[in-house]
């Protein structure tokens, strides 16, 4: 169990602390639920994220999967398991050695032969969860870092792809399209290309539909992209790979604002593409939604946008543990993409209410790739803060934002996921999100319509996490 005496760092540092690494992951532990979980919420919430903080940056943590099972008898059970990756297995067997170069944690040169023999690129799939028709996957940005998950046992095995080559890396956010297929963007370095591909046959077969040249010789690092029903939208922002710094603890990315920002629009059927320059630079991790606005012949794409890449530096563990640290500002930015120009609108959210912060966006999945009204994001209503500490609901039509009310004050709030239910309206449903207080953490069940707390699950000590997915009882949830 967590021992507060072992807490590392600042006021909100325990969720990244080394003490958590020593605690045994829960195995179907029945946990206390305060409040009332809606009777229709039956299934499992599966969340990915770092479990062991082996390096200097949040993105270097070794993957641990957490699962919350909401049963018909009203109980909730929590389970967790470290991913069965080569990176994680080596770390555990070697008692703390790193097998691969991670985001900002390079390995010593003496370990390169071992690393290359194991594939050379990390398979630490700690970022996201993708659910196809038949299988659940843990993913990161390397192709090697895709693991098929047994949602019941949380055991995992490395997944391989067939079909076209798309490059060594791909975004961590493959997007579902029609008939159970996905679309994603791979990046190949020699020659430099962005490869837009469809994933068919249960996440198995890659079919490259467009191979795009970067604006110049440098490649933009893309964590995510957007997709409407007919188009993929790649934003080539000035956060570019810098291979000369590949082994540096400062990372392999460079902010090159002189380069400009470009939007590539790719037709999902023909593969034809266009490139349009934006009037200003910005950076983003995540796309809230995108859709075709046929009335005005434009594509709408909403992102959680930053002015630059300082957010990446701010996610270094020493910064996150520093109570004086303050995360950079971000906002929900709307891109209206026409045939030859991009108009930027926004912020769509209320800067004052959100503490000028928006990240980890969630919508009702039934509204993905179509006009929508509500987006739920992290916020930072209490600054200074080294991490998001609030949750916001934004009406993108009215540009109105509401901050969720909770019984406790949280110093860190993770990604919300939206689970539809209880009615037909877009905001009929709940948000599931992990919040950390100074000493404890809860899985919150929040009413998406009223922005109020319905119930909170008292978790065993768990670390900060990234992305997750809801598995209804009918499709893999328990
Ligand atoms: Fe992400």
TrEMBL record:
Organism: Chrysophaeum taylorii
Binding positions (Fe cation): 173, 223, 286, 467
GO annotations of cellular component type: chloroplast
Record-linked InterPro entries: Carotenoid_Oase
GO biological process: carotene catabolic process
Pfam families recorded: RPE65
Family listed: Belongs to the carotenoid oxygenase family.
Record-given protein name: Uncharacterized protein
Domain of life: Eukaryota
GO MF term (any one): carotenoid dioxygenase activity
Presence of keyword Oxidoreductase: yes
Cofactor: Fe(2+)
Co-factor binding comment: Binds 1 Fe(2+) ion per subunit.
Keywords noted in UniProt: Iron, Metal-binding, Oxidoreductase
């Amino acid at each position: 169990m967590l021992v507060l005496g072992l807490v590392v760092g600042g006021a909100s540092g325990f969720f990244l602390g080394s003490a958590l690494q020593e605690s045994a992951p829960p195995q179907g532990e029945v946990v206390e639920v305060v409040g009332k979980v809606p009777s229709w919420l039956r299934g499992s919430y599966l969340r990915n994220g770092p479990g062991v903080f082996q390096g200097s940056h949040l993105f270097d943590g070794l993957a641990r999967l957490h699962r919350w099972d909401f049963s018909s008898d009203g109980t909730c059970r929590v389970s967790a398991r470290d991913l069965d990756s080569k990176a994680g297995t080596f770390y555990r067997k070697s008692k703390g050695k790193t097998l691969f170069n991670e985001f900002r944690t390079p390995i010593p040169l003496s370990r390169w032969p071992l690393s290359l023999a194991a594939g050379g690129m990390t398979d630490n799939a700690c970022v996201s969860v993708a659910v196809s028709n038949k299988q659940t996957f843990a993913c990161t940005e390397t192709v090697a870092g895709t693991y098929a998950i047994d949602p019941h046992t949380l055991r995992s095995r490395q997944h391989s792809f067939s079909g076209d080559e798309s490059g060594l890396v791909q975004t961590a956010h493959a997007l579902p399209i029609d008939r159970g297929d996905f679309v994603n963007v791979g990046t190949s370095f020699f020659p430099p290309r962005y490869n837009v591909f469809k994933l068919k046959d249960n996440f198995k077969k890659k079919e490259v539909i467009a191979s795009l040249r970067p604006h110049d010789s440098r490649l933009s690092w893309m964590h995510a992209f957007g997709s409407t029903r007919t188009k993929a939208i790649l934003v080539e922002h000035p956060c570019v790979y810098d291979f000369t710094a590949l082994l540096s603890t400062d990372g392999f990315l460079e902010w090159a604002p002189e380069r400009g920002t470009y939007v590539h629009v790719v037709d999902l059927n023909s593969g034809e593409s266009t490139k349009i320059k934006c009037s200003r630079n910005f950076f983003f991790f995540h796309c809230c939604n995108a859709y075709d606005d046929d009335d005005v012949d434009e594509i709408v794409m909403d992102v959680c946008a930053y002015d630059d890449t300082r957010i990446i530096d701010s996610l270094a563990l020493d910064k996150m543990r520093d109570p004086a640290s303050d995360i950079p500002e971000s906002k929900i930015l709307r891109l209206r993409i026409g045939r030859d120009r991009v108009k930027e609108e926004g912020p769509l959210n209320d800067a004052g209410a959100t503490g000028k912060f928006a990240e980890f966006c969630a919508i009702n999945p039934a509204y993905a790739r179509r006009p929508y009204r509500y987006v739920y994001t992290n916020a930072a209503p209490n600054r200074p803060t080294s991490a998001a500490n609030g949750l916001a609901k934004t009406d993108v039509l009215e540009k109105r934002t509401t901050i969720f009310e909770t019984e406790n004050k949280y110093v860190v709030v993770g990604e919300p996921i939206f689970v539809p239910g209880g009615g037909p309206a877009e905001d009929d449903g709940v948000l599931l999100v992990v919040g950390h207080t100074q000493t404890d953490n809860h899985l919150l069940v929040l009413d998406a319509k009223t922005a109020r707390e319905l119930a909170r699950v008292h978790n065993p000590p768990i670390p900060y996490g990234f992305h997750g997915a809801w598995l209804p009882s009918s499709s893999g949830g328990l």
